[in-house]
Amino acid sequence: MKTQTPNYNKMQIKKINYLLIIAFIWISAACQTQTKDLITQLKELPNVSVEKIVGDTTFTEYYEMWFTQPIDHENPKLGTFKQRVLLGHHNLSKPMVVEIQGYNIWTPKAGELSKLIDANQLTIEHRYFKQSRPDSLHWDKLTIKQAAADQHAVIQALRKIYKNKWISTGISKGGQTTIYHRFFYPNDVDVSVPYVAPMNLSREDKRIHQHLATVGSKDARKKVKDFQIACFENKDKLLELLEELATKKKWEFSMGLEGALDLNILEYSFAFWQWGNTSLNDIPNADANAEDLFKHLTKTSPFSFFEAKDIITQQPFFYQALTEIGMYSYEVSPFSKYISYEKDLTFDFTLPKGVDGTFNPESMLAVNQWLQMDAEKMLFIYGEYDTWSATQVELKENNKCQKFINPAGAHGTRIKSFPSEMQAEIIGTLEKWLELKINK
User: Fold this and answer.
1) Is 354 left (phi over 0), alpha (psi -120 to 50) or beta?
2) Domain match, 266 and 155 both
3) Are 196 and 213 members of one domain?
4) I want to staple 55 with a disulfide (CB 3.0 to 4.6 A). Which of 23, 62, 128, 153 is the partner?
5) Distance from C-alpha of 196 to C-alpha of 383, rounded to nearest angstrom
6) Is 135 within a domain?
7) What pLDDT is stored for residue 1 in this prediction?
8) Alpha-carbon dihedral of residues 184, 208, 139, 156, nearest 10 degrees?
9) Measured between alpha carbons, how far is 47 from 160 in angstroms, rounded to an integer?
10) Per-residue pLDDT, 340
């Protein structure tokens, strides 16, 4: 056998070092050009404008995008609008969490799921809200089908760039919107996690009344009702305080001050159990003075919910609620001694003038049937005491999805809100569905 000479060995070592240096330079160049490559890919998407911005710094890069969407996906000739979308980028190899908003974009920050699985995040503003409003509002085009088509267009565009797992999620109305999008486009994402999402089956779903009559303990419910009665019994003094506050805040109420006060007292029980921010010990006694009653009422159930300018801002929500996705009403019979309304009070006063508010139950019935039969890999999060949990998704025999209810939890329930053993079960389900390890 011929022995290799020392010079030959030196040449081989030099060759290997040379190749290592070339590889290092190539990898470094690839890392340095990743930002440019991403921007280039984003700008190559059709009907999209892109700008790099300062967003949540937990992401490596942050972008604001505007997608040109048709007002009517079935009739593009009707016109277009710009839809705002935010992109928080870590790495092309990581999963993508798409936050489907039910309203405007509340925050640019990473959501719970994005942080939990160290994912990229896409946040989509809902059509007709804030910056994603057409110049002319065709109210009949504000449907769950049209909104889902918006989200589908955005997701399909970004899926050309991000090839890993996709997870959709949303909170409250965003959770509802997440459900509706998955109903129309079940293959857009791999997994969905709707948080505290109602599944209303009628225009004013009476299950809300049943929930308020049974939630928590008997003593707790009595204290809530006693407070409402105390407010009604001090109505004249509370009206004076409301008039003073409305003047200071420059508020206007289409139903008048007395109507606004009646509505807000009735809203109190809904708000108390929905948010869970108020301790029972914080509720004033029935013999408290009017100032203390009013202060607690406004803290728990702000009057701005019924104020004219706020209603205009949230009108797309009210329109959807009253025509397609359902709402609730105020039960007046327990307080008939104090108010003279013959029927339960509804939210018809929020509708745009001259717009038909007829409710179409077909959409929710179809979505509900799909949830109980065909939906897959959807993980539902609820709070037990949250008023909106009254109309939570009922999976029936569908074991392809999972639902978790946080004991005594409210509308702010998140995965981190659950007891540790339930958190482990939730995370285990996500790990199984996503086929990845989650480090808590």
Assistant:
1) left
2) no
3) no
4) 62
5) 7
6) yes
7) 47
8) -20
9) 15
10) 87
For residue 167, the cross-strand partners are 97, 191
In a domain? residue 40:
no
Query: Which uninterrupted H or E stretch holds 157?
Result: helix 144-159
pLDDT per residue as tens digits for the range 216-238? 999 999 999 999 999 999 999 99
For residue 375, what is the domain's CATH number?
Answer: 3.40.50.1820
Give the residue from 298, 329, 350 where a domain finishes. Answer: 350
Q: Is residue 63, in this structure, part of any structural domain at all?
A: yes
pLDDT per residue as tens digits for the range 379-438:
999 999 999 999 999 999 999 999 999 999 999 999 999 999 999 999 999 999 999 999
- Whose tokens are 């005491």? That residue is 385
Same domain, 342 and 389: no
Find, among 81, 65, 67, the residue nearest to 137 by Cα. Answer: 81
Tokens 């037990």, residue located: 384
Tell whether 255 and 391 lie within a shared domain: no
Flag whether 57 is in a domain. yes
Cα distance between the two ends of the chain: 58
Phi, psi of 271 (to 5 degrees): -65, -40
How far from chain centre, in Å, is Cα 8?
Answer: 67
Domain holding 168, by residue range, is 46-201+362-434
| pLDDT score, position 33 | 39
368 lies in the same domain as 429: yes
The encoded tokens of residue 226 equal: 């006693």
Counting the structural domains of the chain, the total is 3
pTM, two decimals, is 0.91
149-182 pLDDT tens trace: 999 999 999 999 999 999 999 999 999 999 999 9
CB 160 within 8 A of CB 94: no
Give the span between the Cα atoms of 122 and 99, in whole angstroms.
Answer: 6
Of 267, 159, 144, the C-alpha closest to 200 is 144
At 15, is the pLDDT very low, low, confident or very high (cuts 50, 70, 90)?
A: low
